[in-house]
Amino acid sequence: MKFNIDTIWKVTKIVVVVLMALFVVYSVNGFLKKYNTIPQTPQVIQIADNALLIKLQANTQKLEELEAELKKKDSLILEYAKKNKEKTDEVGIIKAKLEQTVKLHQASAHVYLKGKVTDHHFIKIYKKASDGTEFPIAWAMFHPNQPDSNKLWKTGTYPLEFDVNVIETEDKNGILNRYAELNIENNQMSETKGNKYPVKITRLDWAKRENNEKSFIFNPRLGLAMELTNSVVAPALDLSLASYGKSKADMDWRIIELSVGGTSDEFIFGFTPFSWNFGKALPLIENAFVGPAVVWSTEGEVSYGVKFSVPF
């Protein structure tokens, strides 16, 4: 084709109208999402007495509430993170409790005869796990013949080990799940060594910070493209050098794009200074970009138009 001002002006008007229409759709879609959707609240699911699952979405407000709660409790780990100037990305709080009832087992009471003065009784104190099993948590020793009243009783606790397990998963919809379980072990005694006693979890609260920060990123990305100009309609392979958005995967703009493609008659080379991700405004599409394009063909023609692309 011949290079002329009228052709450039017509193509420019088409490009501007298309971009403005897509931008309006994107803005309206964002407005509706912001004001017409119901906020996702964490959903807690009971798996077992000692295990819970919480489903959540990123929520900065909730994270700040949990962070403030830990601050009131003088949390050492929160203080350490702040001291190191680390940004808190997630906060989780897990609470559990044993059954309140405590009783002495007659079967655990023994009388040790070591002499008339030092005879004593030894008794174990048990707690009940959430599954109903009982395990010793402490002991008491009574010396009835001890003349010193301060030495009549001797008590102690067993070195209980608390085992907390937390895992994170993400489903196909991007919902974050946290699984937590809590068990107690008493490995000092042969009768309980290696046994796990589940503890009822009474609270599982978790929050993840929303990632709303955007920046320019050096982000080379290949993509499939379609060049549409006033003289060329051809598929192409493109390469963008940088992007703007939340991350390398979550892009709003692709920047400085070079493309090569062609038809059965000619090869083309294209340049797009920037392209906008209109896919975010549409259902079923995550990444689809549109931007102005300049195309050179092997026939020596220069044309102007629009390039649509989908990055890998």
Secondary-structure content class? alpha+beta
Strand order of the largest sheet: 13-14-15-16-17-18
Describe the global form.
rod-shaped
Report the helical percentage: 10-25%
Rounded to an integer in angstroms, the radius of gyration calculated over CA atoms is: 34 Å
The number of helical elements comes to 3
The secondary-structure element order is HEEHHEEEEEEEEEEEEEEEE
Average pLDDT over all residues: 80
| Overall number of strands | 18
Looking at the chains present, what oligomeric state does this protein adopt? single chain
Counting structural domains, the number is: 2
Q: Calculate the terminal CA-CA distance, rounded to whole Å.
A: 32 Å
Task: List low-pLDDT spans.
Answer: 32-39
* Range of strand content: over 45%
Largest sheet: 6 strands, antiparallel, barrel
Task: Describe what this molecule looks like in 3D.
The chain is of the alpha+beta class. The chain has two domains: 5-32 and 213-311, no CATH class; 39-210, no CATH class. The protein is 17% helix and 48% strand. The chain has three helices and 18 strands. It has a six-stranded antiparallel β-barrel. Strands 1, 2, 9, 10 and 11 form a five-stranded antiparallel β-sheet that branches. A hairpin with a 5-residue loop joins strand 6 and strand 7. The longest helix has 32 residues, at 5-36. The radius of gyration is 34 Å and the shape is rod-shaped. The protein starts with a helix and ends with a strand.
